[in-house]
Each structure stands twice: as C-alpha cells, then as structure tokens.
C-alpha cells in the first residue's frame, strides 16, 4: 500500500479498478450533438431489474453525458458477467439523476450507487452480441485492457445497430379443428398442382378428344366453412370434414379418365346430398389436376355463354355467389381485426406513457418530501445541534468536489455539495478525468493542477469560473506530477512535491496568474510524495509524505520574506496521503498512511507555541480524503480505508465537540478527490 512499496504509489488498487456493474468507465465528453447512443452496464443479478423497471443507470460520474440523452436515443446494455451486449433499446425519457433513488439496492435499504438514470423501451428484441463481435465497432473506445467508454458517436451507433439480428420468434399454432381421420391412398406420382383461381375449371378429356369439355364445381362451401383448406390439409393424408356416407374417392393413378371422374364429382355435388356436410376435402397435391395447357379457366364472358347453354346451372350460380360472399366477409373480418389490433396497440402505448409519467411524478414527490425532511430534521448528531453550528450551514454555503474515483470509474466531474440539504448538484466537468490532483481557491476562482487519469500523470492546469459554469485551460506546470500538495500565497499558486510513479520530488513550482507562467521556486529540504500543505499567516507549511524510502514525520515551512524552507517540529505520527486544514489559527493534520496501515489520529500544530498536541481521532481510518473548512468546522469526505474499502461517510469536527459522523449520504463513495470552499 502507498508509495512505500516500489511496485505502486497508492494508485487505485486492482480491486478499485472499474468493477462489473452498472457502468464503470470514464467519459469521452462528447457534445450532445455528437452523442449518437450510449451503453449502460449490468450484471446477471441486476439485469432483470433493469428490464423489469425499464430503467438503466450508471454511477454519478457518468451524469456528464447521461444528461445529454434525449428520448429516442439508441441505447445498449452491457452485461459484465458474460461480457455480452444486449439491444436494441431506446431512451423513453431524458437522462436525469435518480428517477429511482433506491434502485439496484437490497430492498431499498440505501441510496442507489447508480443515480444517473434513464427510462427505456425496447426498439427491437435482438440476439446479444459477444465482445468479439462488437469490439471492432467501438475499438476507439477501449482505453485500458477490457475497459471501454460508454459514449457512442453516430457512426459507432449505426455500426452496432447493423450488427444486431432480431431474435427468432416461434410461430404460435392454434388447432382450429380437431384431428381429422386419414384416408389411405395409393402411392402418388409427382403431380402438377396449382390452386384454382376460381371454383370452376374446364377440363379437356385427352383420352377422348371428341368428348365435350365439362366445367365442374370443385367446392360448394358454406359461408361458415374454411376458405384455406387447400393449404391447411396434410400433405400425406386425405381428410374428411363433416360426416356422411357419400364421400368421393379420387384415384391418383396417371391413367385416370378425367372426364368420367369429374362427371362423378359433378353428379355428387347435385342431388339430395349436401356438399357442405358430405363432400370430401382433399389435399391439393393429391388431386390430379391437368397441366395449365390442358385447362381453360372460364372468364366472365365464357361463364355467360356456358350459362346460356345450360352447362352452368342456377344452383351452381347460387353456390358461386355464396363463395364470393364468404370471401368478402372474410376480407371484412380481417380488416376489422387489423383495425382492432392497431387500436389496441395505440391504447397500450398510451397506458405505457401514462405509467411512466406517473412514475416520474411519484419520484419527484418523493424527492420533494426528502428535501423538506432535510430542512426540518438535523442531519448531524445532536451534539452539534446548536445555533452557531446551524448558522454556519446556511443554504448559500457549498463545497466543491473535484474529480477522484468512486470505486467504478475515474472522474472528470465537478459537483457542488450542499450540507444544508444533503444534496449534490453536477456542474460542468473538467476536460479529462483527474485524480490525485491538488486544488486551491484564488480570487473567487477554482484551480486544479497535476494528478492523473489511471494511465498518465498530468502537468495540465484548469481553472473553473463558477459564475459562468465553465472551465478554461491555464499554462501547464514544468513537469508531470500527482499526489502533490497545493497552497496559495500573495496571489500566487504553489505546487509542492509529489511524484510521477517513478520518482518523488522535493521541488516547488509557482504560478503567477498575471504573468501566465510557472516558475521554479526554492525546493523543500526533503523529498515529499503525497505530502499535505497549508498557508497560515503569510507562511506555507508542508507536512509528512514519502521520501522514496520511508514515510515522514518531519515538517517544514516557507517564508517568502526569507526565501527558503526551514524545519519546524516534527509530527508525532508518520503520515502520507493525509489531510490538513487551518481552523482558528491552528493547523490540523489528520488520517493518512503511516507505512503499515491507514490511521484515524489527529494532531494539531500551533505556530505561536511551535508545538504539536494530539487531538481526538476520527471515527474511521482514512487516507486520500477530501478535507475543507466549512463555517467553524472541518469536513472530511470519503477516502480509502485499505486496499479494498472506499469510505462513503462524511465526518465533521468542531473544536470542543470532536468528530461526529454526519448523515450526509448524497456523495457516496469517493476518494483521491479534492474539496474546496470558495
């Protein structure tokens, strides 16, 4: 742990690298117009809840682009458990914070770790893609091994959509009729078949060329009968509908006398027997129908001639009209069913939208209730509940949290935390992820310098203007460094110590914003990686850190009037990755790593007495915490407890009352970040 081990410099341990869950990756910071789609994350145990609630979520740090999601934007769901990508979904709402503040938790026992949320709906149900299938499409998004950014540009989105294939749907077959008895037939020969366009056929008798062509009626179907029996009957059987003894047997040998057989059909279709009840329906492939060259289908003119000649009888005209009516009724019924289905789909969509709107309204009401409760119920221990303490926590006071790591991703976010309401408001993000940086306030502006993103150390500097909610780039430092300390003195910014993962630095750089450049300043007496620094009464103090061999107790100060660093009394405890704060003309050093473990101890340096005294320890061991003075109190936020545990609590120290663990839970897990009060 810590820089004391040559193999690492207390960079996020492997267990703190992005974990399988709902979202775990840095952001590309695409503009809203360039955002073509987005990927959300899940695991086997959270995917059912995502799909059941039709709600996707990511950790807070991803809200910088989730808020750019608009209704209809294509979305995808990546399952970390089997590394498959599911789709195709689309946003059913705009992205916002905490539609469901307790989603993906154990029965709603705590606030969700994935508050950057959006409601979704399924655009097309498709088979999931393996990582080998989709990796080439988003190859540019991969930044560290198997980790990739979740933001998609338009070209990547189109590429993923093209890869997905709709899931196969098994047709639902309903048995409209009970099984029908089969009639054994002689082995059939290959026949030429074609469904008749009308029920009438003119058949030429080729065995008796001189025989008169006969027009026969193949079916006299009651309007209630099935029209599609030619297609539905079994290929290998002859089925019989209805009952009766006057069924028609149709041989299938090639030497059939068509004229005699068709005459038999015609005679069977007339007389006392009802075709609707006694006629045998057969498979079209089993009926020997002459080739089209041998058959002349009667058109309207032919039917009129045949009718006048007596070949078509009046009763057959009735049958024909009944069949036409049956077809018309079926078409009308089909059209009505289609209209009903369309109407049902519209009603279902309206109900779905109303349900989603109701869920949003309920969530808004719940958030409002919590906000009102926060105003009326103290969020800290009763021991702090006095007038002066409450006065210091007025609504106008804010703590700015910059970058860091939340257990899932490196963060570029800037958040405004209000202790009075226990709420956190996302502001404009930095240009890149930044952890292990230093931050200071100068002339109402917030400066962040150095640090890293999990892969590289930075020399870059950014400045935030809270009035316009915008970041601007400033001149870079002379060298890349992280885990450095920062302080301001006489309108200038000092970058103190730190390291680059290979070596630790004793040097100090100074930025004069008016001159717009960094210049080298007098180096410290000791090399210090992960030190802490503060300004008090026109003097800069630096405490502890790691010198490349051991963690330090030593301290020194820089007086610009002298222009050099001098020793001051050493601390009682070796510390690195610790925090300092100035309160009531004293310097408080707390927490950190002593070379063996994280500590919770507190010691206080009084420059007027030039000595240290031990104070009441914090309730939790923590290092790399974000610490600031807020009103008359010291606030310590987050940090790490050991290689695997990120602290999610906030502690408050007030002189005379000691440390109290607050009820502020809006921040959640966060470490390697900075906290500033402007």
TrEMBL record:
Entry keyword Coiled coil: yes
GO annotation, biological process: response to endoplasmic reticulum stress
Keywords, comma-separated and alphabetical: Coiled coil
Statement: the UniProt record of this protein carries the keyword Nuclease: no
DCD domain boundaries: 33-166
Protein name in UniProt: DCD domain-containing protein
Source organism (scientific name): Asparagus officinalis (Garden asparagus)
Cross-referenced SUPFAM superfamilies: Kelch motif
Entries under Pfam families matching the protein: Dev_Cell_Death, Kelch_1, Kelch_KLHDC2_KLHL20_DRC7
Coiled-coil features, chain-numbered ranges: 320-375
């Amino acid at each position: 742990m810590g820089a004391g081990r040559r193999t690492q410099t207390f960079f996020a341990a492997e267990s703190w690298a992005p974990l399988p869950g709902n979202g775990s990756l840095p952001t590309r910071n695409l503009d809203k117009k360039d955002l073509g789609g987005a990927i959300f994350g899940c695991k086997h145990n959270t995917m059912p809840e995502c799909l059941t609630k039709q709600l996707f979520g990511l950790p807070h740090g991803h809200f910088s682009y989730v808020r750019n999601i608009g209704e209809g934007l294509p979305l995808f769901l990546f399952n970390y458990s089997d590394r498959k990508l599911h789709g195709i979904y689309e946003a059913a709402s705009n992205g916002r914070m905490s539609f469901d503040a307790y989603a993906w938790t154990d029965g709603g026992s705590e606030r969700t770790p994935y508050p950057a949320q959006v409601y979704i709906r399924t655009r097309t149900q498709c088979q999931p893609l393996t990582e080998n299938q989709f990796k080439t499409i988003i190859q540019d998004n991969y930044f560290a091994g198997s980790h990739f950014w979740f933001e998609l540009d338009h070209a990547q989105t189109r590429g993923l959509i093209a890869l997905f294939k709709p899931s196969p749907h098994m047709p639902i077959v309903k048995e409209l009729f009970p099984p029908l008895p089969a009639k054994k037939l002689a082995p059939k020969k290959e026949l030429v078949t074609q469904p008749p366009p009308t029920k009438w056929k003119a058949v030429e008798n080729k065995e008796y060329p001189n025989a008169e062509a006969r027009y026969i009626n193949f079916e006299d179907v009651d309007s209630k009968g099935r029209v599609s029996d030619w297609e539905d009957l079994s290929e290998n059987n002859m089925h019989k509908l209805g009952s009766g003894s006057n069924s028609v047997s149709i041989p299938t040998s090639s030497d059939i006398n068509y004229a005699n057989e068709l005459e038999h059909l015609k005679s069977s279709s007339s007389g006392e027997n009802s075709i609707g009840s006694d006629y045998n329906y057969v498979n079209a492939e089993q009926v020997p129908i002459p080739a089209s060259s041998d058959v002349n289908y009667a058109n309207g003119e032919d039917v009129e001639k045949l009718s006048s000649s007596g070949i078509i009888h009046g009763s057959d005209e009735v049958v024909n009209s009944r069949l036409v009516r049956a077809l018309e009724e079926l078409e009308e019924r089909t059209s009505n069913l289609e209209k009903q289905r369309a109407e049902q789909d519209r009603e279902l969509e309206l109900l779905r939208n109303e349900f989603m709107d109701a869920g949003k309204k309920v969530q808004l009401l719940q958030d409002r209730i919590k906000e009102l409760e926060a105003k009326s119920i103290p969020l800290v221990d009763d021991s702090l509940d006095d007038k002066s303490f409450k006065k210091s926590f007025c609504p106008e006071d804010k703590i700015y949290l910059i970058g860091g790591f939340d257990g899932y991703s490196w963060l570029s976010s800037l958040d405004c935390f209000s202790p009075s309401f226990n709420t956190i408001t996302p502001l404009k993000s930095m240009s890149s992820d930044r952890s292990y940086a230093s931050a200071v306030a100068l002339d109402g502006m917030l400066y962040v310098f150095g640090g890293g993103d999990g892969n590289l150390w930075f020399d870059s500097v950014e400045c935030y203007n809270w009035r316009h909610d915008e970041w601007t780039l400033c001149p870079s430092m002379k060298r890349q460094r992280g885990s450095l300390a920062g302080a301001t003195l006489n309108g200038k910014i000092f970058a103190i110590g730190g390291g680059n993962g290979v070596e630790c630095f004793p040097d100090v750089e100074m930025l004069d914003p008016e001159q717009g450049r960094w210049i080298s300043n007098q180096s410290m007496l000791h090399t210090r990686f992960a030190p802490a620094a503060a300004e008090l009464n026109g003097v800069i103090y630096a405490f502890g850190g790691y010198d490349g061999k051991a963690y330090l107790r030593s301290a020194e100060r820089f007086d610009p009037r002298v222009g050099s660093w001098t020793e001051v009394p050493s601390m009682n405890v070796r510390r690195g990755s610790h925090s300092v704060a100035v309160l009531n003309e004293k310097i408080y050093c707390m927490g950190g790593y002593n070379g063996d473990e994280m500590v919770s101890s507190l010691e206080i340096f009084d420059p007027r007495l030039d000595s240290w005294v031990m104070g009441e320890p914090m309730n939790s061991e923590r290092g790399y915490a974000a610490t600031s003075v807020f009103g008359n109190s010291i606030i310590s936020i987050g940090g790490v407890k050991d290689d695997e545990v990120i602290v999610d609590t906030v502690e408050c120290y007030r002189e005379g009352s000691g440390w109290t663990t607050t009820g502020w839970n809006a921040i959640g897990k966060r470490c390697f970040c900075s906290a500033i009060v402007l």
